[in-house]
Write a structure and sequence with these properties.
The chain has 221 residues and is α/β, with parallel strands linked by helices. The chain has one domain (4-208): BirA Bifunctional Protein, domain 2 (2-Layer Sandwich), CATH 3.30.930. It is built from three helices and eleven strands; from the N terminus they run E-H-E-E-E-E-E-H-E-E-E-E-E-H. Strands 1, 2, 6, 7, 8, 9, 10 and 11 form an eight-stranded mixed beta sheet that branches. A three-stranded mixed beta sheet has the order 4-3-5, with no helix packed on it.
Length: 221
């Protein structure tokens, strides 16, 4: 079983999309819906996860702000950034939170490799990082990860910066990290469009997430 990939056109409103994603995750748990991965761009929004600190919300201005149920701290979503919401049944895969996050990281790293970009992890810090194009010796974040797992069904997911207005991140301390910046594929000189990024994400998915079993596996959790 492989998930259905869906692309949502336009700039998806955050609250409505979150409610739809939560409902679909519940349907997966109930056995009435298939696994899905949603590709979309949000209208500009700042979202704070369960570890978000109020002091890291620096200057939101007129940008919509939402506290949400995913893990992690503050991030920005908006046009030019590909958000991928991943709804998988880990009982049919590997019911292990760390293994799931590691697979998301591998998915992003493999996707970036297809554009000649070497993404890397940072110990103890979320997301995927690359050498900064503007500050030699610094690592900048190019992709964020924020997940929630409810009774072994995943929701929320990842965000990769293709060509967003990076000034949106000035409103926050992104993910609470003060010793790194934020960058994008276009800032790195990669002139890809969203369709090319989506194609790379689809192609790399099966490497990080092999097809699920037809029957759930037993978990002690």
């Amino acid at each position: 079983m492989t998930p259905v990939f869906r692309t949502i056109d336009g700039h998806a409103p955050y609250a409505e999309t979150l409610a739809a994603m939560q409902a679909h995750a519940a349907a997966i748990r109930a056995g009435t819906a298939d696994e899905e991965v949603w590709f979309l761009e949000h209208a500009p929004v700042l979202t704070g996860g369960t570890s978000a600190r109020p002091t890291d919300l620096v200057n939101p201005g007129a940008i919509s702000v939402h506290e949400t149920s995913r893990g992690g701290q503050w991030t920005w979503h908006g046009p030019g950034q590909r958000v991928a919401y991943v709804m998988l049944d880990l009982q049919r895969r590997t019911p292990d939170v760390r293994a799931y996050v590691h697979a998301l990281e591998e998915w992003i790293i493999s996707t970036l490799t297809r554009f000649g970009v070497a993404g890397t992890r940072r110990d103890g810090l979320p997301g995927i990082w690359v050498p900064s194009p503007t500050a030699p010796g610094r690592l900048d974040k190019i992709a964020a990860i924020g997940v929630r797992i409810s009774r072994w069904v995943t929701w929320h997911g990842v965000a990769i910066n293709l060509d967003p207005d990076l000034a949106g991140f000035d409103a926050i301390i992104p993910c609470g990290v003060r010793d790194g910046g934020v960058t994008s594929l276009h800032q790195l000189g990669i002139a890809a469009d969203m369709a090319a990024l989506d194609s790379a994400l689809r192609d790399a998915f099966s490497m990080a997430f092999p097809a699920a079993d037809s029957q759930p596996v037993t978990s002690s959790r």
